[in-house]
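Ligand-bound model needed. iron/sulfur cluster.
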Amino acid sequence: MEDIIIQILDLLREGQVVDDQVLVKLIHAAAKRAGGDKRAFAKRRLLPFYQSVKRDDPKRWASWDVTPELEGRLLHVLRMKPRRSASGVATITVITKPWPCGGTCVFCPNDLRMPKSYLADEPACARAEQSCFDPYLQVSARLTALSQMGHATDKIELIVLGGTWSDYPVAYQTWFMKELFRALNDDAVSGVAANPLLRGFPGDTANDSSSLDAMPVAVRERRDQLASCGLADPNCAEGRPMAQATPELEAVQAEVDAGHMTYNEAFHRLYDASDPWQHVASRQRASLDDLEREQRRNETARHRVVGLVIETRPDAIAPERLRLIRRMGATKIQMGVQSTDEWILARNGRAMGTEAIARAFSLLRLFGFKIHAHAMVNLLGATPDADKADYRRLMESPAYRPDEVKLYPCALIGGTELCRFYHEGQWQPYSEEELLDVLTSDVLATPPFTRVSRMIRDFSTQDIVAGNKKPNLRQMVEQRLEGQVVQEIRMREISTSAVDLADLRLDVVAYKTATTEERFLQWVTHQNRIAGFLRLSLPHADALAALGNDAPVGPGEAMIREVHVYGMATPVGSDGPAAQHHGLGKRLVERACAIACDAGYECINVISAVGTREYYRSLGFADHGLYQQRRLS
Ligand code: SF4
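Prediction:
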């Protein structure tokens, strides 16, 4: 292992390119020399090995003579899954504890181990279950994994999933957020030597027994707490499920799957009567003062929150709730829209109509949130043509126009009400050809200011009774799109590529919504690839007046809803070709201020994340209630 690292360093010093092909050759040669299995030298093990030596054996690491500049290039070679931080930030998805939902959607899964609508096999859910849904433990585990994969973790987007956020008690919401920030502020990264992947491979003397227990104290304490409440097995290893499914849970799940009980009824039977869950729940409370203390710590912490996303239903969106969500630090809302067709919504048991959805869009936009909509195709009663029209309406009607969209083809999951319709012949999955046709049409109908962030749910194939089981559906759609003009953001992102600044121009796309004039400012190359963007909202005075005292801002106040500059997430202060370090963000903000001023606005707000407050202060913004604000002149 050490040989490979030293060879890579030598090649880099000589100015040679070390790509995956070169790396594979080095790995094969090392395996041959050791007469062993090349898996022992796999790429995924190189970086943890390097980090463990640097951390636990400083003398040996010093003998390699690695300068900061050389280390940057080495990490670039060893980094796994570069796309994970290609958008400029590292993402951590966490899941809230099992909880019911007021909705009655026919397609919605009923896994009692999870909050309504999630399945335990989905990767983020499996990780959450391993941590008993504890936010501190979930963040610690992901920070550790991201660090081991070589990703910079100084800028973090937190995505909080789990059904309807506002349905949880406020004390739980506040505690959950406080714990997320606390884990980041504590730098709760387990020592890389604690990773079982690192144990016992040839040449790895860094992993002696003294370095294996590198779990942060707060993590150990929280695990002990959960064990003392009876929720977790005190002896389970890190990375193993702490709470196992009980026979009672399995029995009640069978009742739900047979349609004899709803998820909500089963939830109350299982969790209301569970001493461990109730005991743990009694500790899951915090005040807003506690949360704000952790937020202030985060402003200058090593891992700063540069985006915070929560998930909710459109009919659960109301001004007082948005005010609270904003105080908690959220900057983006994910909401299940699924369809903008009244008949389809009703046929699928959605407990809301298009009026509630349109109102949710309007409120979110006036409050300055980024709007991430979930849209489903192949719902009960839908046809491919109706789906295409439905999606076009979502993109084109001023009532909607989301900033981001997750496209989910409806899949049949065991135990849902949709199974009955399937067996009665009233619903069937689209053929692969029909599905690809609809999704291709949807991507082509997506405007330049909207990002299609996903095209499938992370369901495992075992959970899908009928419907798409291909995890590479997105790639199949992208193949069909080759040679066609695609406007949506994700396919235009510069991703991990270097940027030629001379090739960039600042383009402004104007569009209208029911309550605002929108300006989408984008840095684009001559090939229309996108290196950064800003969302500016210019609210209509009458829309704010209609909200009365609920209006989040006054007339004459513009709103920056998002600033995003692409480039591999690199630690703050480091050099590199990444777009983030060339002042592109600052120039976007200055241009937005000029546009708002020209349009007659007196000041401009920014819905800043807690970890970006310092940045906006440096640009002349002052803290101002729910936002940061700058006067325009
Ligand atoms: S609103 Fe969402 S979580 Fe609730 S039943 Fe419908 S899909 Fe499931």
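The longest strand covers residues 530-539.
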